[in-house]
């Protein structure tokens, strides 16, 4: 029943308590309820100590304890074997022996009786067994026994017989225990068993020690000897047998609550393994445990469910043996319901219910004060029915101790129950003005506990006037409590309890709150073993109640969850179960509890896993080429098995060889016939598969070997792989060893000429392919067959195949070779096929060898052809023509053709020559430009990589770029093929132009190269300078003008002190953008000027004052002389590298005129020599440049590049008049796509100053 909160007192139970507890309670409650307890209320006898059955080895062991409480104090008497024994005892009922009596006198069955004026209590029936202290009889010393290695042996202990089973210890003479293992085992009867003997088992001091714990004695028997000699037997292994128990079946009777031990002790070599099973159901790992290396199966606290059939299997590599155990479980009597003790008033009816169970079912009898009811006077008020004793209209004389006893063949049990008939005045024990709180839907008990005999009669009212029982959901209990079912808010009221025919009453207040409810219960989860599970529990509670407690339970047992728990973690009422295992499966309940009520909801976690391995794997119906395998299913682990996988191993042992899948079968199949190969040894194992995965393999079966037989099949893929003329190599696919079917396996090879089908077969036997046959002639056809044979015979007749001896090179070349032009770059090649007999093998096809000799006219000019690798084109054997495409324009070609077989190619045909016509040239290479003035642009280029004919000149088209409209296009025709530069004049300095340049030959104009750019403006010195002063230097930076050509200038500076003189820097480029002025004095104001012709700009700046600091000792690396030396060395190295770079790239100074004349000479020289070889050389050079040396290529591709191409990149030596600057300026784009002089609107991205070479020492080393 849900808890109901009440104040201020604790409530009393519904039934009357045991008499003496009631008295204690009432005494403690007197202060609160003012209960008057009669001082003469007495207590019947109650046992505090009862005797137990045992064995006595001496008079000191004869001690039967019997103690009881009661008021007045009880007296004691004993009954032995149904007769009074000894005198009546007082104070203590413990029975002790008389020192003069014989021990055997006390053997028998005893009961103790404790009595006072309220009745007599009876003890359980006990048995006292007497026997002398065990002792060893004199026996002859056993002779030393000799055994062979591998034999089994038993050393028998045979301890002295006793009603108490001794504890057996096998030890040596030094009192060391004999080691026990799978091979050496001790049985329950004390014998020592050896499954097989080894040489180390030889010894003379095997001693059995029997320990009788109750007798406090250890009896050592005479030592026993074993001598193990080497075995002369040819057979090393021994079949598995059972040492103990004997036979194939045994039966065991065990009582409920006892411990059952089944033994299975095998012998054999190798040592057999023991496996336990239960026939009628799976063996429960929770109910059983295996001891002594699996030799004992033990079940503690036996239950009726353990009744059944068990089997032990002992297995080694030779065989297996089984023993069946029939276990019958019976039970001595045990209580299922006990009678309760109460106080009764005269006239009441007493019902004492006594129920017991057992196997067989026990007989239940009643006694009064130790006297059977059947032996007392007949009383109509007293009757016994189905184990119940009913006393009607009791009187004071019915006060007694009543005994209920249950008996069957396995024992008896007895319980005493006190019935006390007494008369006491009525009293109310429940405090007045108690407040009860409950939640809606609960059943509430309003207490009105009374005390008195006869039992007081009470009634309840609502609001002191309305009878409570007028409400249909209110009832009054026999103990006086008022029961209100399914309470609601309307039941909140005041209730009054009154005792009839007295003025005694109390009041109670009931307050009904909202019930606690789980609104989001835990769900049923299916979880894979090893993963985590989360169970949620959401709830609502009344706002007047404190925060509830959430208690999680698993299968009814509380779970302790915390953040540090390795298994359970509670998060905001939810439960997380980490690393779920099979033992975590069960019902998880969430109980939300307040001080008034609680709500519980449950969810189930089903843990799924791969199934356990199948069991009881057996082989049956063993045939020459098949065997039937059967198995039993095992635990599915909550995911149904979908199939079984049969695996096979052909190794000598299960651990050798490789397990391979034989086949899968559906889950409803339990046996399968497996087809086997002859002359093989097999082992089998089974795996079970479910949705989670595949189980571990079952225990492997015993090996099964099939007998030998003739081969069933012949080898496949018989063929010839001949490579040498006049010989033949016969090959085939080697057969699997499992197809040999027996010993002495070989391949028998047959061959004969195909042209002579009636000829005799030549044969040869080999153990593996291939087979070489000599002196066959070149490319001769043969009939061939290969047959498998072994010592038992040959396979069926094999199929015949046609093969050939070795091929040789073809003898003839294709003839009538002709070439017909189809298009400018493709031709049709035709020829006459070779004669079949000249091929001397299988004709695989033809190979066309195509060689390009160079530009057209080279062969006609009588020049030696260029040497190059030919292009080889293969065509099939049935072809007599082929289109050859992708030829080069304006080129000479030669062509030959050969026939080939697997041996190789035959001779080449006669050479055929042809030429391709001219085609439009390719684009010119590169198109950089310079701007000599504000209205001029000079374009430079190189001849096309693919001229595709004789270059006759160039076509230059250009137009001004005007946003939003088209400007007129200008055309310049350059008819001199050797010219590779052109200057455009009278251009608009404010505009940008697009240039298109195409090469021309007799086939037309080629694809144009496109470039865009603009002219450069005259430069000027900077007028705005940013200055950053240091102690002895100043950093000067400026932004060069857009599209301005480079101009030289210098800085003048003067100390603003009396008598100072002007100093001047070196020449500086306007595009340089940065300069560092060094060698200044610290803390001084300077005046700075920029001079360029007649123009000057002025600024003032002040250097930073250098504070004198205390100098601490330092090493030489911080000294000024060392730093200066290192700086000078770095400067010298950079200058040398710079000079080498300029020398290598430009070759020194030269004027613009010399440069242009040199370009014209180079172009004319190029036109004079039109040799194809040089053209190829140029092409090769271009390819090399483009890949490996892009920087070096610029110098080759441009028209004798000048220093102007590197205006910002090197320290250019200017003339004082600046004439060189006027002709060349700016940085050249290394990709040749644009002029890269000073920054302009068409070239806005000026490189940062740090990327250029500085023009002074300070520019290289950076600021201080």
TrEMBL record:
Q: Which domain of life is it from?
A: Eukaryota
Q: Which PROSITE patterns does the entry mention?
A: FN3 (PS50853), IG_LIKE (PS50835)
Span list, region Disordered: 695-721, 1182-1202, 1221-1264
Ig-like domain location, by residue? 45-123, 134-225, 230-328, 333-420, 425-507, 516-606
Example GO BP: nervous system development
Q: Which Pfam families match?
A: Bravo_FIGEY, fn3, I-set, ig, Ig_3
The annotated topology with respect to the bilayer is: Single-pass type I membrane protein
Q: Which SUPFAM superfamilies does the UniProt entry name for this protein?
A: Fibronectin type III, Immunoglobulin
What are the record's GO terms for cellular component? growth cone; plasma membrane
Q: Which residues form a coiled coil?
A: none
Keyword field? Cell adhesion, Cell membrane, Cell projection, Disulfide bond, Glycoprotein, Immunoglobulin domain, Membrane, Repeat, Signal, Transmembrane, Transmembrane helix
Fetch the InterPro entries from UniProt.
FN3_dom, FN3_sf, Ig-like_dom, Ig-like_dom_sf, Ig-like_fold, Ig_I-set, Ig_sub, Ig_sub2
**Where in this chain does the record put each Fibronectin type-III domain?**
613-709, 711-808, 813-919, 920-1019, 1020-1115
* Cellular compartments annotated: Cell membrane; Cell projection, Growth cone
| Leader peptide range in chain numbering | 1-33
What is the protein name stated in its UniProt record? Neural cell adhesion molecule L1
Name the source organism.
Danio rerio (Zebrafish)
The gene name on file is l1camb
């Amino acid at each position: 029943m849900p808890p109901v909160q009440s104040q201020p007192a604790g409530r009393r139970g519904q039934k009357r308590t045991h008499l003496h507890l009631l008295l204690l309670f009432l005494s403690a409650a007197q202060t609160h309820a003012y209960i008057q307890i009669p001082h003469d209320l007495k207590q019947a006898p109650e046992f505090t100590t009862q005797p137990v059955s045992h064995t006595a080895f001496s008079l000191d062991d004869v001690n039967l304890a019997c103690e009881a409480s009661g008021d007045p104090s009880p007296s004691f008497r004993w009954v032995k074997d149904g007769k009074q024994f000894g005198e009546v005892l007082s104070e203590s009922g413990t029975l002790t022996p008389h020192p003069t009596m014989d021990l055997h006198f006390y053997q028998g069955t005893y009961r103790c009786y404790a009595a006072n004026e309220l009745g007599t209590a009876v003890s359980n029936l006990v048995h006292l067994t007497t026997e002398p202290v065990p002792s060893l009889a004199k026996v002859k010393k056993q002779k030393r026994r000799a055994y062979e290695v591998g034999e089994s042996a038993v050393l028998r202990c045979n301890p002295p017989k006793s009603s108490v089973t001794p504890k057996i210890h096998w030890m040596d003479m030094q009192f060391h225990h004999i080691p026990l293992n799978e091979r050496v085992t001790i049985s329950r009867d004390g014998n020592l068993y050896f499954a097989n003997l080894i040489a180390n088992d030889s010894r003379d001091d095997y001693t059995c020690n029997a320990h009788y714990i109750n007798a406090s004695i250890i009896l050592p028997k005479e030592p026993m000897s074993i001598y193990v000699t080497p075995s002369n037997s040819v057979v090393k292994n021994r079949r598995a047998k059972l040492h103990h128990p004997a036979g194939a079946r045994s039966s065991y009777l065990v009582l409920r609550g006892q411990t059952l031990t089944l033994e299975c002790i095998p012998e054999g070599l190798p040592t057999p393994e023991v496996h336990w099973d239960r026939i009628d159901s799976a063996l429960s790992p929770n109910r059983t445990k295996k001891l002594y290396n699996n030799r004992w199966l033990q079940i503690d606290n036996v239950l009726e469910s353990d009744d059944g059939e068990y089997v032990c299997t002992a297995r080694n590599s030779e065989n297996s043996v089984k023993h069946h155990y029939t276990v019958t479980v019976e039970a001595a009597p045990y209580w299922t319901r006990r009678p309760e003790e109460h106080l009764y008033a005269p006239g009441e009816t007493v019902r004492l219910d006594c129920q017991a169970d057992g196997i067989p079912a026990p007989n239940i009898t009643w006694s009064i004060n130790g006297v059977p009811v059947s032996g007392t006077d007949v009383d109509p008020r007293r009757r016994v029915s189905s184990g119940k004793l009913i006393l009607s209209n009791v009187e004071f004389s019915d006060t007694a101790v009543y005994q209920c006893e249950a008996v069957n063949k396995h024992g008896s049990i007895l319980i005493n129950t006190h019935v006390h008939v007494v008369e006491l005045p009525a009293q109310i024990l429940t405090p007045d003005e108690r407040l009860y709180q409950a939640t809606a839907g609960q059943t509430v008990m309003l207490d009105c506990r009374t005390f008195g005999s006869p039992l007081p009669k009470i009634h309840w009212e609502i609001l002191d006037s309305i009878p409570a029982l007028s409400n249909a959901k209110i009832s009054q209990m026999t103990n006086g409590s008022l029961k209100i079912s399914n309470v609601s808010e309307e039941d909140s009221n005041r209730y009054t309890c009154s005792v009839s025919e007295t003025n005694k009453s109390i009041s109670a207040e009931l307050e009904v709150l909202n019930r606690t409810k789980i609104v989001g219960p835990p769900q049923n989860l299916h979880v894979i073993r090893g993963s985590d599970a989360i169970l949620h529990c959401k709830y609502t509670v009344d706002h007047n109640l404190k925060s509830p407690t959430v208690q999680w339970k698993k299968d009814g047992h509380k779970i302790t969850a915390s953040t540090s728990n390795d298994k359970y973690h509670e998060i905001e009422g939810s439960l997380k179960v980490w690393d779920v295992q099979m033992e975590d499966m069960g019902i998880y309940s969430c109980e939300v509890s307040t001080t008034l009520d609680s709500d519980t909801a449950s969810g189930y976690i089903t843990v799924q896993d791969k199934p356990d391995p199948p069991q009881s794997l057996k082989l049956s119906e063993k045939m020459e080429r098949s065997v039937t395998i059967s198995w039993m299913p095992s635990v599915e682990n909550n995911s149904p098995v979908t199939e079984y996988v049969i695996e096979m191993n052909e190794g000598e042992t299960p651990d050798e060889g490789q397990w391979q899948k034989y086949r899968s079968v559906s889950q409803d199949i339990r046996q399968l016939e497996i087809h086997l190969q002859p002359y093989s040894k097999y082992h089998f194992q089974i795996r079970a598969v479910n949705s989670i995965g595949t189980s571990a393999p079952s225990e492997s079966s015993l090996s099964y070997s099939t007998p030998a037989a003739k081969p069933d099949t012949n080898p496949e893929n018989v063929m010839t792989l001949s490579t040498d003329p006049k010989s033949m190599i016969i090959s085939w696919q080697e057969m699997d060893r499992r197809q040999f079917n027996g010993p002495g396996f070989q391949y028998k090879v047959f061959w004969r000429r195909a042209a002579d089908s009636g000829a005799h077969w030549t044969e040869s036997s080999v153990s593996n392919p291939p087979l070489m046959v000599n002196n066959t002639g070149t490319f001769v056809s043969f009939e061939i067959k290969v047959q498998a044979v072994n010592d038992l015979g040959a396979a069926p007749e094999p199929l015949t195949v046609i093969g050939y001896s070795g091929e040789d090179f073809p003898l003839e070349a294709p003839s009538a070779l002709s070439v017909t032009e189809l298009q400018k770059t493709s031709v049709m090649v035709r020829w006459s096929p070779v004669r079949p007999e000249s091929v001397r093998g299988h004709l695989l096809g033809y190979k066309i060898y195509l060689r390009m000799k160079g530009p057209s006219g080279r062969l006609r000019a009588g020049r030696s052809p260029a040497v190059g690798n030919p292009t080889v084109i293969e065509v099939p054997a049935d072809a007599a023509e082929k289109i050859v495409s992708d030829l080069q324009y304006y080129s000479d070609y030669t062509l030959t053709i050969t026939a080939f077989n697997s041996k190789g190619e035959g001779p080449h045909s006669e050479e055929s020559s042809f030429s391709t016509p001219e085609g439009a040239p390719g684009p010119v290479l590169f198109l950089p430009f310079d701007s000599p003035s504000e209205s001029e642009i000079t374009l430079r280029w190189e001849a096309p990589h693919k001229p595709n004919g004789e270059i006759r000149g160039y076509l230059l088209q250009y137009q001004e770029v005007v946003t939003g409209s088209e400007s007129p296009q200008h055309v310049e025709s350059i008819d001199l093929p050797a010219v590779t530069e052109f200057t455009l004049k009278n251009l608009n300095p404010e505009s940008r132009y697009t240039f298109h340049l195409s090469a021309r030959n007799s086939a037309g104009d080629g694809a144009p190269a496109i470039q865009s750019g603009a002219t450069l403006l005259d430069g000027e010195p900077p007028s705005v300078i940013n200055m950053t002063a240091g102690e002895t230097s100043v950093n000067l930076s400026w932004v060069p003008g857009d599209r301005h050509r480079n101009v030289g200038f210098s800085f003048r500076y003067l100390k603003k002190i009396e008598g100072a003189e002007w100093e001047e820097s070196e020449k500086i480029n306007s595009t340089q953008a940065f300069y560092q002025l060094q060698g200044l004095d610290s803390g001084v104001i300077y005046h700075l000027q920029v001079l360029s012709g007649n123009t000057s700009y002025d600024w003032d700046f002040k250097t930073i004052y250098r504070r004198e600091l205390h100098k601490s000792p330092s090493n030489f690396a911080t000294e000024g002389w060392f730093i200066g030396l290192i700086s000078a060395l770095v400067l010298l190295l950079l200058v040398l590298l710079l000079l080498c770079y300029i020398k290598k790239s430009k070759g020194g100074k030269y004027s613009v005129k010399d440069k242009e004349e040199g370009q014209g000479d180079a172009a004319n020289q190029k036109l004079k020599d039109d040799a194809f070889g040089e053209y190829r050389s140029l092409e090769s050079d271009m390819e090399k440049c483009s890949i490996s040396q892009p920087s070096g290529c610029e110098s080759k591709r441009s028209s004798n590049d000048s220093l102007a191409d590197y205006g910002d990149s090197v320290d250019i030596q200017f003339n004082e008049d600046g004439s060189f600057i006027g002709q060349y300026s700016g940085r050249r784009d290394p990709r040749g796509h644009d002029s890269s002089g000073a920054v302009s609107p068409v070239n806005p991205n000026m490189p940062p100053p740090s990327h250029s070479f500085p023009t002074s020492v300070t520019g290289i080393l950076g600021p201080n």
